[in-house]
Structures are given as structure tokens and as C-alpha cells.
User: Which sequence fits this backbone?
């Protein structure tokens, strides 16, 4: 098992497992997604405190740039983790769910809700984003499934969830418009 080949305290392990969330044996991907939601909530709190200093829409662009940094870190760490564990897309790797869930919220909430000024309860918006991301991530239809089956290594681990995050973000945004 991969736990014997890579130390929990190895920096790649800490990042890939989102500080151990992926080591929870029951539904590790869900725990990784919850870490992504918590991170989005923290970012929203920080950005809202600075609202008067920045123009409309800055959250979306800064959030997207932040997500790209996490994507690059995840790609690098997944490559290391897979090399040391000799296992592709081990269940404890949840940095991909973190990035995908964060991207879903960026698109749906900062992209749709903030830009279009849609009045929606924040907790409801987060719940909708969470549900749609988990559906797209678990079902793996269309491009998400193709990437999962055909791209190996860290790119395969990360990019199926990035595409799931894009699809879930657009779907959630459309739901917010219809509400």
C-alpha cells in the first residue's frame, strides 16, 4: 500500500492528502471537496474584508490565479506521490478534489452570483456547488471520464477534476440564474 512507500510527513503527501483529509477511509474525495469549500469560504471572508479597496470582479480573477497556483502545486506533488507510492490516482490523493471544488465555487459564486448580482443565500450556494461537483466527479461522464481513462500521471489525476469543476461551476451558475 502507498502508505508504506511515502511518509505522511513528506511535503508531497501533506499536500496531496490535504493535510490528511484524504487519509479518512470513508469517502476521502468528499473530505477533499469539503477542504476546498472551507478554503473558498476563507478566501471569501478575506476578499470581502478588502472589498472597498478593489474593483468589482477582482475576486474571480484573484481566485482563478490562486486556483492555478494550487493546480501547479498539485501537478508537481501528484507526480512525486505517484512515483513514490507506485499507484496511479490513489484514493488518498484529494488535492484534485480540493482544486476542482474551489474552481466550481469560483465560477459559480464569484463568476455568476457576484457578476450578475444574484441574491442567493451563501450557504445554499455552497451546498449547490458541492453537490454538483461531487456528481460530476463521481459519475465521470463525457470529458471528465475520458480524461480519467486516458491521461495518466499527475495530469490525469488533476485535470479530470478541473474539468468536473468547470462543468459543475457552469451548471451551478445556471441553477442560480434560474432560481
Assistant:
Amino acid at each position: 500500500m502507498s502508505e508504506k512507500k511515502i511518509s505522511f510527513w513528506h511535503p508531497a503527501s501533506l499536500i496531496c492528502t490535504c493535510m490528511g483529509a484524504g487519509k479518512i477511509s470513508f469517502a476521502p474525495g468528499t473530505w477533499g471537496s469539503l477542504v476546498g469549500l472551507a478554503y473558498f469560504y476563507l478566501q471569501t471572508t478575506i476578499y470581502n474584508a478588502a472589498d472597498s479597496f478593489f474593483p468589482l470582479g477582482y475576486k474571480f480573477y484573484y481566485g482563478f490565479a490562486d486556483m492555478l497556483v494550487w493546480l501547479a502545486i498539485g501537478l508537481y506533488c501528484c507526480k512525486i506521490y505517484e512515483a513514490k507510492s507506485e499507484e496511479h490516482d490513489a484514493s488518498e490523493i484529494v488535492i484534485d478534489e480540493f482544486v476542482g471544488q474551489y474552481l466550481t465555487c469560483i465560477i459559480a459564486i464569484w463568476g455568476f452570483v457576484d457578476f450578475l448580482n444574484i441574491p442567493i443565500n451563501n450557504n445554499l450556494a455552497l451546498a449547490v456547488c458541492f453537490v454538483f461537483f461531487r456528481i460530476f466527479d463521481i459519475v465521470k461522464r463525457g470529458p471528465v471520464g475520458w480524461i480519467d481513462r486516458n491521461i495518466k500521471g499527475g495530469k490525469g489525476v488533476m485535470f479530470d477534476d478541473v474539468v468536473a469543476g468547470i462543468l459543475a461551476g457552469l451548471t451551478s451558475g445556471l441553477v442560480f440564474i434560474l432560481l
User: Anything to note?
Assistant: Residues 58-85 form the longest helix (28 residues). The radius of gyration is 16 Å. The mean pLDDT is 92.
